[in-house]
Amino acid sequence: MIYPDPTSRSAQLYERAKKVMPAGNSRLTVAMSPYPIYIERGEGYRVWDVDGVERIDCVNNMTSLIHGHRHPDVSEALAKQAAKVWTVAAPTEPEIGLAEILTARVSGVDKVRFCNSGTEAVMFAIRAARAFTGRSKVAKAEGAYNGASDPMATGVMAHAPGWGDSKAPVTMRDGIGVAESAVEEVITFPFNDIDATRDLLRAHGSELAAVVLCPLPSRMKYPIASPEFAAMLREVCTEQGIMLILDEVMSFRLGYGGSQDILTTQPDIVAFAKIIGGGLPVGAFGGRSDIMDVFDHTQGKAFVLHGGTYNANPLSMAAGEAALKAWTPSEVERLNGLGERFRDGMRTLLRNSNIAGVVGGAGSLCAAGLGDSGGPIQNYRDYVSRTFDPNLNGAFYRGMLNRGVMFSEGGIFILSTPMTEDTIDHILDTAKDTLKSVVSTQ
Ligand SMILES: Cc1ncc(COP(=O)(O)O)c(C=O)c1O
Question: pTM for the whole thing?
Answer without folding.
Answer: 0.98
